[in-house]
Write a structure and sequence with these properties.
With 673 residues, the chain is α+β, with helices and mostly antiparallel strands. 33% of the residues lie in helices and 23% in strands.
Length: 673
């Protein structure tokens, strides 16, 4: 009897607890429902919180999978559903629906979307349980959306920014090219497919795939490949094949071609590696991206931002899509350089395809006018996807047209002597009019130098040797003796003031100029060698041009600029030369062209001043090797620009005098305009 009483008591207790348990209010259900919604747990929402009427109208795929897919396709992020919390003592009538104003907002690929809705809960029984359940329809995804509407996303491509030179002439622009293709009905010789494939850097299999598309008709144009506007020779070869033709298409153009290729760079198809690297930047497999030069460096500014639109469209034929959200395209930025593209082309052409590099700066502003590397390549070839065979040809060319020489550093040879002179003049050691007696072809300070001797190329130079004659005859012994008189400390300090040993303050990465590998001069012999640009001294071509500025500006050296909106006359170094010392060097450099070994640049109507230099790159002591020739020059009356040019392998071509001849062609072409 006692046992029956215990069991009965337990049953009564459970019943009492159940009766006392708090029933979930519609506000409680709303809180749980919106939490699942914000957490994007749509299956839980469907299973436990949707009304029977909603479930009858929409199956789980329509509810959960559709929302999950839209979140992925539209890049929906930060989904947030909020509501005003009802009062705790609010009373709810189970015979009446409970209606809650809610606010829905989210970020999408097309920008933010937010709207207000009324969410209704009804009290009903499901699976033998009574609860408050939500009524739902697709308008809770986007306002006005119905079950039969489709959601579409449209992308509007941003227009890539253009690159202009200082005079507004395009260096990289959105122009036209050609799409080469086949008209099947006229392409009667199937054996020509291999020729077309080779010319357009594709395969016969690709051509067959294009021709076998379902839409192709005998008189239709079937695109096969693209051709740059400048490649007239390729177009001519293509249209010789019966059935081949071409039509205009939008394409990036590089009007100055090879002369500016290393600077402008080019765009090209995005690779899988680049796509992974920029996976959060909105690129797709079909996009083009800056691959080299300024096109790569300025990619973020040039690219712009694509526009995106999200629309819903009814099932009726011809129905007008209704806007949900639209983010307008933002075109890329147009960028203007300080480069003078015509002067650049004149300089490149004057180099006659020789291996070398050249730079020009405006000595009164610091603006970079020329930055070229020779030989070069056609950027359009790379933009369209260069063939492996063609790339192999370019990469194995002994002249290395793909190598960017203006970014490299070279031994400057005697072109550095005016800088050595400037350091000596300012140190008060070098007296320009003081003559030094020098005899013979070689010289050494004393026997402590062992076998090392300083050599000069013109032992016939008259004595006594002063600064003017030393520059005219480019006398190594004179400058070696001046450097020894200065001593290592003063000489190194002076060179550092000209920017040696530091990164050149420039928009592009250029190899810094160096005094030596470690910045010191280990011996008197190395000090002597460095005074005339040998030893371990290296300088990049732009820095070499900039170092001549103080001669024109009476002591100022400006930071070189590349972008037209950069401030001009940004002082890099000052007080490098007093006016009397600068005037001395102005006279001497003019005399180098009048009386020295740069007479190829002695033009009748253009008073060119400058200094030649030859850097010997010996393989071993006593052996002959490669000679690189230099000429740094300017118009003595109107110094519009300082031109520094270097040509490799001048040992069998009149040495640095040949470079002076090439530079003269630049002046003749420039002042002809």
């Amino acid at each position: 009897m006692k046992r029956k009483f215990i069991v009965l008591t337990a049953v009564l207790l459970i019943a009492m607890l159940a009766g006392c348990a708090k029933k979930e209010s519609p506000a409680d259900r709303l809180a749980a429902y919106t939490k699942f919604w914000n957490d994007e747990k749509f299956t839980d929402m469907y299973t436990d919180y949707l009304s029977s009427g909603t479930k009858k109208t929409f199956d789980q795929d329509e509810f959960a999978e559709r929302q999950e897919k839209l979140i992925e396709d539209l890049s929906i992020d930060d989904l947030e559903v909020t509501y005003k919390k009802p009062k705790e003592d609010a009373e709810w009538d189970e015979e009446q629906p409970a209606v809650f104003p809610i606010h829905i907002k989210m970020d999408t690929a097309a920008g933010p979307v937010e709207f207000d809705k009324d969410l209704t809960f009804i009290y009903e029984e499901q699976d033998e349980e009574k609860h408050w359940y939500a009524d739902w329809d697709p308008s809770f995804i986007f306002p006005g959306l119905t079950a039969t509407d489709t959601v579409q996303i449209q992308t509007t491509k941003a227009v890539r920014g253009k690159i202009f030179d200082r005079n507004g002439k395009p260096i990289a622009m959105n122009g036209i090219g050609y799409e080469a293709g086949i008209v099947p009905g006229k392409f009667t010789d199937a054996g020509k497919k291999a020729d077309v494939a080779k010319l357009l850097n594709t395969t016969v299999e690709f051509i067959d795939k294009q021709l076998n598309q379902s839409w192709v008709q005998p008189d239709y144009f079937v695109p096969i490949g693209k051709v740059a506007k400048t490649d007239e020779a390729l177009l001519a070869k293509l249209i010789e094949i019966p059935g081949m033709t071409y039509q205009e298409t939008a394409m990036r153009e590089y009007p100055y071609g090879a002369s500016l290729a290393h600077l402008s760079g080019y765009i090209g198809p995005i690779t899988a590696e680049l796509l992974e690297k920029h996976k959060d930047a909105g690129y797709t497999e079909t996009d083009l991206i800056g691959r080299q030069g300024l096109e790569r460096i300025l990619e973020d500014r040039l690219r712009g931002e694509n526009g995106v639109g999200i629309y819903m469209k009814g099932p009726e034929a011809g129905s007008t899509p209704e806007k949900i959200a639209v983010k307008e395209a933002v075109d890329g930025e147009d960028i203007t350089l300080t480069i003078d593209a015509d002067l650049q082309k004149k300089t490149y052409d004057a180099m006659r395809g020789e291996t070398g590099t050249a730079a020009a700066v405006d000595p009164l502003t610091g603006e970079t006018l020329v930055l070229t590397s020779s030989p070069s390549f056609d950027p359009a070839e790379f933009m369209l996807g260069i063939s492996g065979e063609r790339y192999k040809t370019l990469s194995e060319d002994p002249k290395q047209p793909l190598f960017n020489r203006f970014a490299a550093a070279y031994a400057p040879g005697s072109s550095i002597k005016p800088i050595t002179a400037a350091v000596g003049l300012e140190a008060g050691i070098l007296k320009p009019d003081a003559g030094i007696m020098i005899s013979g072809k070689t010289w050494q300070k004393d026997s402590s130098w062992g076998s090392y001797r300083v050599s000069r190329f013109h032992p016939e130079a008259p004595n006594p040797m002063d600064l003017n004659k030393a520059l005219i005859y480019s006398d190594n012994i004179y400058f070696a003796q001046q450097a020894l008189a200065m001593g290592k400390e003063k000489f190194i300090s002076g060179l550092k003031r000209f920017g040696f040993g530091e990164e050149i303050p420039f928009a592009l990465n250029l190899t810094p100029s160096q005094i030596s590998n470690d910045g010191t001069l280990a011996s008197e012999g190395q000090l002597a060698d460095t005074s005339f640009g040998q030893g371990q001294m290296l300088t990049n071509i732009l820095h070499l041009a900039v170092m001549y500025e103080p001669i024109i500006t009476n002591g100022l050296m400006y930071k070189p600029t590349l972008y037209k909106d950069d401030a001009t006359q940004q002082v890099w170094q000052k007080d490098l030369l007093t006016k009397p010392n600068a005037d001395e060097l102005k006279t001497d450099l003019r005399n180098v062209v009048l009386d020295g070994f740069a007479q190829k640049a002695n033009l009748p109507d253009i008073p060119v001043a400058g200094k030649t230099g030859t850097a010997e790159l010996k393989k071993a002591a006593g052996e002959s090797g490669q000679d690189n020739g230099f000429f740094v020059s300017y118009n003595a009356d109107h110094p519009n620009f300082i031109l520094a040019m270097m040509i490799e392998h001048v040992e069998d071509n009149n040495g640095s005098g040949y470079v002076a001849e090439l530079a003269a062609d630049v002046y003749k072409a420039y002042y002809k305009k």
